[in-house]
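Dear support,

Our group has been running a series of protein-ligand predictions, and this particular one with adenosine-5'-diphosphate is the one our PI (initials K.S.) wants archived with full inputs and outputs. We had some confusion internally about which version of the output was final, so please treat the block below as the authoritative record. The input we submitted was:
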Amino acid sequence: MKSDDIADYLSQVYHKRVTVTGTGKLGEIDVGLKEFGYGKPLLIRFSADGEDKTAVLSSMRTEGGFGHDHFSDRAQIMIWQHSTFNKLPKHVESIDVGYFTGDGKLKSAGGAEEYFVLMEEVKGTEYFYDLERISESNATEQDVGRAQALADYLAVIHANHSDDSELYVRRIRDMVGHGECIMGLMDSYPSNLDFITDKELNEIEKRCVDWRWKLKSGTDRLCMVHGDYHPWNVMFRDGTDFTVLDRSRGEWGEAADDVSGMTINYLFYSLIKDGKLDGGFKKVYDRFMDHYLAETEDWDILKVIPLFYAFRGLVVASPVWYPNLDREIRVKLFNFIRNILSEEEFDYRNVNSYFSG
Ligand SMILES: Nc1ncnc2c1ncn2[C@@H]1O[C@H](COP(=O)(O)OP(=O)(O)O)[C@@H](O)[C@H]1O
Ligand SMILES: [Mg+2]
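Confirmed final output from the archive:
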């Protein structure tokens, strides 16, 4: 970090002519018992319109771990610190939050109230409309072709692996403990439901924790993922031409997350239509699974997918996400969740056996 770049930035923050007179690392000399810290505080000495001042610029270590793996994780913590430090009595004042650019400049982000993403508009139709149509009639050759294309896409992206094992451990941890995943879903379930009790949810959650300990050492499975691969995040144009939207929760993860994210919907729609996996939805489900497994030869995915199907099951059985479902469908979905978590390996050719109590 060059002094001139620091001076440019501080001039904007203080609206004064700033000259940096010195910098020094803080909190690194004789720290006593505590040997580790997340932050890297830097003391800056400067003069502002001739007045001597100091300030501390704190950024985070980028080594990862502790959920600080992504630059966005670290940004989240910095943005949070800036928005809360000044609300606590006797707490050091935060002056600004900002970011370093690739060429070493310092930019303020202190004016941000809410972030947004600007993206291209995608032409096409959301894939769930296909499932709505299959519910009314049957699966066409194109529907089977589209299921194969969706499986093929995953086989291609999942072939990219990473050895950043910390990210796999995190992905499995997030699958159980993240607000958008199993524990978050559990907490979004209202109490006093007529199809599941808090005690039963607690039991399921405990099993998911056991699954986490079984899976998190499988770091060699870390691969490129979409992260929220479902029919509302895929837009089809003619034939098998499609675009995906809304990637979530990290670039690298577990392939079973994507496979379960899409295929749970074939099971779900079929349950609503026929009370079991059958007809057109069985055709597209079998084609998806058979093609994915043939292309990847990743048979171990069947030993990992139960945890991810449990999550996806909690989503589709949720009275928050899907308020208008028959009680019987929800009961079958929780049978599916419990049964799949109690087996070492998912038998995808006998899905219907999982829906009974
Ligand atoms: N770039 C885009 N082009 C066309 N439609 C879009 C685009 N982004 C989102 N949509 C539409 O908005 C819906 C919700 O957007 P999404 O990013 O998936 O948000 P959410 O987090 O609510 O799922 C999508 O299912 C799609 O119908
Ligand atoms: Mg979406």
